[in-house]
TrEMBL record:
GO terms for molecular function: DNA binding; transposase activity. This is Transposase. The lineage of its organism: Bacteria, Bacillati, Bacillota, Clostridia, Eubacteriales. NCBIfam families: transpos_IS110. It holds the Pfam family DEDD_Tnp_IS110. Residues 7-164 form the Transposase IS110-like N-terminal domain. It comes from Acetivibrio clariflavus (strain DSM 19732 / NBRC 101661 / EBR45).
Length: 429
């Protein structure tokens, strides 16, 4: 048991509740800390310093990770010299039934968060590197914007299907510049049929950057399809208005995504200009793996943060959330265990796309990563495809761990070559 005072902080949007426990788990002080009040933060620091004098031991602070609301208080307390642990809500939720009565309020939660330290040996959370924190924020915003873009594209598709279902027969990609320009200017079959021929052909040619012959052929096909679907078109005011709204939102989101990507590249370029460009060098190491581009590498680096916190590959696997769950009780041991999915959701999302890229083949039928493709095919002989893909994802995390640990680019080796290399190292030692 750790005999030191503990401060538990239940974080809210505008204020947080802090409860300080003595070494015997008695509540010795409580305080409400408003996030926009520097005075409250200073009073909280004074209260913690007083607790240190009373018990001759510096308090350890535990707070729950609550969106971005915990960040101001976390940084302020770290700067004041306190050890702070930011815990996963899953951990704090695990002690909600510590009491028999069903009581849920901020004061009670603050005490329970403090008790969490008594049950688990929590480690202090380091203040992330400023560049890493900035990169993490940019990457997360990128994926959020990308998800919104996908949602608006799906909505636009639904409207286009009602206005002119066979529009895709003319433009297979309705989100291309030419298709979007036509939809914005001529939203219904009636508008297309009434349009000036030369003006519409010119619009298609300008946006597609194709020849006049190609643009004229597209125009002829478009008019033919519009004439066929005109009697079936649901061209009410609502659909026409929402079509314009969705096109506008898609354009705005695409521009925003470009701005975020530009900011990520600028951040990396600024790091490269330094004497010790750790950010850029780590990204270069990650991009040595097949299927990892700049954005994927930036996301992995940003989400992992301090790599020194991971001493073994298994810990990084668990952080990615691709470790198997464990079901065991008495003599029973579960054999159909699913992926835990307790780690970073964004890391799993990126890892999934990287795994797919590593098991695919190129146009000339050669494998992008012959070692992982063979591994996947072997797993598929005894396991379902999704389970085999999960095994590839786990293997990739171990490879990422090795690359970051050794600070060496990835080298494609077969299992036999890897075994021979390890045997040679042991023999030399």
């Amino acid at each position: 048991m750790n005999f030191r005072p503990i401060a538990g902080i239940d974080v809210g949007k505008f204020f947080s509740e802090m409860a300080i426990l003595s070494p015997t788990n008695e509540v010795v002080a409580r305080m409400k800390i408003h996030h926009d009040s520097n005075t409250d933060v200073e009073r909280a620091v004074e209260l913690l310093n007083k607790t240190e004098k009373d018990f001759a031991s510096r308090p350890f602070i535990v707070m729950e990770s609550t969106g971005h609301y915990h960040k101001i208080l976390f940084h302020s307390l770290c700067k004041a010299g306190f050890e702070v642990s930011v815990t996963n809500p899953i951990q704090t939720d695990s002690i909600k039934n510590i009491g028999i009565r069903k009581v849920k309020n901020d004061k009670v939660d603050a005490r329970k968060i403090a008790l969490l330290y008594r049950f688990q040996e929590l480690k202090s959370t380091n203040i992330p590197n400023e560049n890493i924190e900035c990169l993490r924020s940019l990457c997360r915003q990128y994926y959020k914007l990308n998800d919104e873009l996908t949602a608006y594209k799906n909505r636009l598709t639904g409207i286009v299907d009602q206005l002119m279902l066979n529009f895709k027969d003319v433009f297979s990609n309705i989100f291309s510049k030419a298709a979007m320009a036509v939809l914005e200017e001529y939203p219904t079959p009636a508008h297309i049929l009434k349009a000036d021929r030369n003006k519409l052909i010119s619009l298609i040619q300008k946006k597609s950057r194709k020849s006049l012959k190609w643009s004229t052929a597209k125009y002829e096909l478009l008019v033919s399809k519009a004439r066929d679907f005109a009697p079936l078109s649901i061209h009410n005011a609502s659909n026409v208005i929402m079509l314009g709204v969705y096109i506008s939102m898609i354009k705005t989101l695409e521009e925003s995504l470009e701005k975020v990507l530009k900011s990520i590249r600028l951040l990396i370029a600024e790091d490269m200009a330094k004497d010790m460009p750790m950010l850029a060098l780590t990204l270069e190491l990650l991009q040595s793996l097949p299927g990892i581009g700049l954005l994927s590498a930036a996301t992995i680096l940003a989400e992992i943060g301090d790599f020194s916190a991971f001493k073994k590959p298994g810990k990084l696997v668990a952080y990615f959330g691709v470790d198997p769950s464990v079901m065991q009780s008495g003599e029973f041991t579960g054999t159909r265990n699913k992926m835990s999915k307790r780690g970073s959701r964004l890391l799993r999302r990126v890892l999934f796309t990287i795994a797919l890229a590593n098991i695919r083949t190129k146009r000339d039928k050669t494998a992008c990563n012959p070692v992982l493709l063979e591994f996947y095919q072997q797993k598929c002989q005894s396991k379902p495809k999704k389970v085999a893909l999960g095994a590839v994802m786990r293997k990739l995390v171990c490879i990422i761990f090795a690359v970051l640990r050794d600070r060496k680019p990835y080298q494609l080796r077969s299992p036999q070559e890897h075994a021979q290399m390890l045997a040679a190292k042991h023999t030399a030692a």
